[in-house]
Amino acid sequence: MTIKAFRQRRADLVREAQAIFDLAAKENRNLTSDENARDDAIGAELVEIDANIERAERQMERQRSVGAAVDGNESADHRSSGRNDGARFASLGEQMMAVARADHPSYRSIDPRLIAAPSAGPTGMSEGIAADGGFLVQTDFANDLLQNTYEAGEIASRVNRIPIGANFSGIRMNGVDETSRANGSRWGGVQAFWTGEAQLKTASRPKFRQIKMDLDKLTGLCYATDELLQDSTALAAWLYQAFSDEFLFKIEDAIVNGSGAGMPLGFLNSGAVITVPKESGQLAATIVAENVLNMWSRMPARSRKNAVWIVNQDVEPQLYQFNVKIKNVAGTENVGGIAAPQIMFTPAGQGGNQYATLMGRPVIPVEYAATLGTAGDIMLVDLSQYLAIDKGPMESASSIHVRFIYDETCFRFVYRFNGQPIWSVPMTPYKGTKTQSPFIALQTR
């Protein structure tokens, strides 16, 4: 049995023993002779299991001490640069079948393609993770999984993503400490002067701030039936779909709403976001033309070409009203003879566009936006100003115990990722008093 199987068996026995005592307490009685005998048997088996776990942990510590200087991701990347078709899995489904069998007590050995010594040369195989019983997903399969994840995401596909190399767990980089576009503040202090002949040159220098991020773990679980485990092609297709969809959801939700504690910092919770106030007298749960214009005016001109509107679907009926009847904050077409502002809104499908457009920029409905009337229901963002880091290959592991009574095997995938806005605070423009930012939201109404 693997150490995971020993630990699972130990947990099962402890639960069984607790159930015996709970039943006796509920019935307000002592243990019966059969219950005493079973508790004694459980105790004896736990002693044996604890000894086996301790023995396995000693061996794992020996393995770690031997391979401490080797980064599993680096080894897998090095090996994947070569080619040895005899030592590679043909598909993700085939590899996951091998992972599932490695955890099954009826199989006496692990598929050698799951584990490769660093000295074995470039084989493109996965590296065993002895510390937690997992295996690195073969590099090409991992890349395909991540490609599917990011290509399907309207938010994730737009962020500035940087891969982290082997032997590193995060990033430290200098960012320009620019909070104002006034003279002497651009690029944190770079300044140019019109200088006459023979006049003294004035020195200036930029100011930097350090951007620091460490990789966090995103762990996904997938459940496969025993029938699905018999067909590697179907298993691969199912895992690609299930894994990509779930990881995409968690990544994009974190980019928008993340707390920054053990997960990415979402732009809505960052110091860079600007929350545009609602209009005086504005009705609850409405969006009016003035809101849109005010949000647009706070987006830096150089970011507008990349900007997109991110909205909750509850917001869409409000936007379509702009083309039916342009309303102002009071809900009428004009007040005191002053016409309400005109907003350019183009419905989805018109002109062959996949998305509706507002002020010429795509309107993308997502699940992560707040419901209508709440801050974050409509956002104007330039996602190229959001920095994300990640590291692969991913780790995978399996368990036959989590859903044993349902004849299902649990697959676990671990992806290391983090992110935060590049901007730390909004920017004061060169001329003007209202700050600007690539992350704009509308106040709760």
Automatic annotation (TrEMBL):
Classification via InterPro entries: Phage_capsid, Phage_capsid-like_C
Region of interest (Disordered), ranges: 60-87
Classification via Pfam families: Phage_capsid (PF05065)
SUPFAM superfamilies for this protein: Major capsid protein gp5 (SSF56563)
Entry superkingdom: Bacteria
Main location: virion
Compartments, as annotated in UniProt: Virion
Phage capsid-like C-terminal domain: residues covered: 133-422
Biased segments, Basic and acidic residues type: 75-86
Name of the protein in question: HK97 family phage major capsid protein
